[in-house]
Design goal:
463 residues, alpha+beta, Penicillin binding protein transpeptidase fold, Beta-lactamase, five-stranded antiparallel sheet, three-stranded antiparallel sheet, 17 helices
Amino acid sequence: LEFYLNQVPLGSNVYGVGAASQLYFGKRAEELSVAEAAILAAMIQAPTYYSPYGNQTNELHERKEWIINRMEGAGYITEQEALAATNEKLEFSQPLIAIKAPHFVLYVLDQLFEEYGEEFVRAEGLRIQTTLDWNLQEKTEELVTQISKMNAGFAAHNTAVVAINPQNGEILTMVGSRNWFGTSFPEGCTAGIDCKFDPKVNVATTLTGRQPGSAFKPFVYATAFKNGYDGNTTVIDEETNFGVWGDKEYIPQNYDGKFRGEVNLRQALAQSLNIPSIKVLLEFAGIKESIDTATEMGISTLNRPLSDYGPSLVLGGGEVRLLDLVSAYGVFASEGRRTPPISITSVKRSDGKVIRRYEKSSIQVLSPVAAKEVTSILSDNEARSAMFGSYSLLYFPEYEVSAKTGTTQEFRDAWTIGYTSNITVGVWVGNNDNTPMAEEPGVVLAGPLWNGVMTKALELLTP
């Protein structure tokens, strides 16, 4: 057993518990606490998957607690020691290696390990060609650092960004937190449990999902357009009791608390009006049909029973992942064709022999008419100006850019998603522990970063 523990791989090219103790905790093995030792034991089964620097920190802590319970059951520690170990706040040393685009790199590794196995990937010295655009990635990281400092003043402590080429699905940029090399906040929080900022968690891909707010509305309107309605169809924007949902009457308000009377669907979507949008969902689109549309376009998280969803679905009542949301908006950009996101274009052995080339495949999931109608509305600066102003962060005078913002209930999430025919960019701002931010809309918290990234993307990628 001693020989095994001195040789066992524990991630980051580290072998043996002695080296792992120094890497992850900055101390000798004999100085480890019960909780720290349980962490290393938890990692042995799959050291990269359970790495404290990776995306599965929740699973790592769950496995740590399972090991502690087993130790107590076997009599190695007392009940009091087990309780203390379970409640201990762990602090991991910062990794000494420098990784470029770390969240993207780990996302790629996760895919390789799943497809080929970790042992094969580590042993073969594979040469991986990815889709990352380093110029855009580097500029995005700079913008995230700069704007996140301002967002901290709004009690918003984390950020994620994804950019995709909607024509081929290639992920061009991925920033999973505001600083992978940063320190968890607040001080003393436990990673994966109660941190507002958790640097190693890739918010874009690994969370069970966050509510998208009004960023979900285009999927509902697209469903209505599939059913034969269009931007000229009208509804009445007035105080409305939509009946009992969730054991209480549902009487929502527009964001600004105003009612506008008769409005057409172009105005309703462009200005993100809540009451008309709920009427579109219930009268023109349908709850199940809207979920089906979103799922076909790439949203993978709307898996609860249908009865769990109600009129609030159109206001963001179902959770989404940022990567999924950006990819799904790419369907609008490509006139209804969906190309799943890819991060790898080829895998070669160390001698250059190709193991696999990743072919891009696309399928028509939305009618071109419906897709074009959504794009037309989301790029209509005049139609949205009554709510956002004529020169908002969503407006690009030299380009036709379609954009939508989202703000969730109690201001827990802020989103801005937008696209042209060759680039789709999405930004999420919030806190890992889902605590509220200052009462500011998505265009204020996520808009500046989205505008900066989109500006750079248009500069770099527009033919």
